[in-house]
Amino acid sequence: MANRMPVIFVAHGAPDAFLKAPDTLAVWREIGAMLPHPKGILVISAHWEAPRPCVSLAGSPQTIHDFSGFSPELYDMKYSAPGAPLLAQRVASLLNAAGIATDRHPDRGLDHGAWVPLSVMFPHADIPVTQLSLTLDKNAAYHFAIGKLLAALRDEDILILASGAITHNFTWLNWRANDDQIPYPQAYAFNAWVAEKLAVNDVAAMLDYRLAPHGAEAHPTEEHFMPLLLAMGAANGDTPVRFQPRFNYGALSMDAYLWR
C-alpha cells in the first residue's frame, strides 16, 4: 500500500551512543529524514519487559535514565515528546481482539532504548509516542506474532520503532575500542547471518536464531533480539533496507533496518 507507514529496527547500542557512535547517529538522522511524518510512534524496546503485554498511557512520558556508570551529561538529557494514550489503547484493542490480555500502565516513561534513537530521528520531539513492553518468558515466535498483529497500525499513519540489538554479549565488548577496530569475529559472523536471513525474509531461520552460528552466544539473554523479530512480523513480508554503521565497542552491531 502506497501510504503504508514504515517499520524500523535500530540496534540502540550503549546509552552513550550520543558520544561514542557518530556514524550511527548519522544513520539515525538519515532514516529520520527519509520518513513520512507519522501521526504517532509506537516503540518496542528491549528495556521494558512485563509479565504480559503492557502499554503506557502516559500523557507526558518522563525520560527514564535506566543506566549507570556513563558520562554525567547523559543524565541531563530529556526527550519531552507528548504521550499517545489513544494509540496505547488502540494497541491494546488489537491484541485483545486476538485473545491476548494486555495491561495498561498509567505513567510509564521512555527508557533509553526509546528516547536515545528518537532524540536523533525526531529531535523536535513533536510526535506523540508510547511504548509497548516485551513479554517475559515468551519466545521468538510469540513476539513475531505480536508484530503481525500490530501491522494494521501501519495503515493508520503509525510508525513502529523496534529498538534492541543484533549482538548483545558483554563479554565480547572492548570498552576501549576505537572506531577502526576490527569487529569481534563471532559478532561479525552472526550479524552477517542476520542480514542474509532478513534479506530473503527467512522467518523460520530467524525464529530459530539460537541455532545459527554464534546465535546463542550473541544473546546470553533473549530480550534484545525480540524487538527485531517483532519488527519483522510487523513488516509483513516487506523487504528491508539495511544500514551498516560501524560496530560499537568492537562487538555491538549497530545495524538498522527499514521496511517500507
Write the layout of secondary structure elements.
Layout: E1 7-11, H1 17-20, H2 22-34, E2 40-50, E3 54-56, H3 85-97, E4 103-105, H4 112-121, E5 129-135, H5 140-150, E6 158-164, H6 185-199, H7 203-207, H8 215-218, H9 226-235, E7 240-243, E8 256-259
Parallel strand pairs: 1-6, 2-5, 2-6, 3-4
Antiparallel strand pairs: 1-8, 7-8
Helix pairs in contact: 5-9
Description:
A 6-stranded mixed sheet has the order 5-2-6-1-8-7, sandwiched between helices. The chain has a two-stranded parallel ribbon with strand order 3-4. The model has no long low-confidence stretch (mean pLDDT 96). It is globular. The termini are close together. It is an alpha/beta fold. Helix 5 packs parallel to helix 9. The protein contains 9 helices and 8 strands.
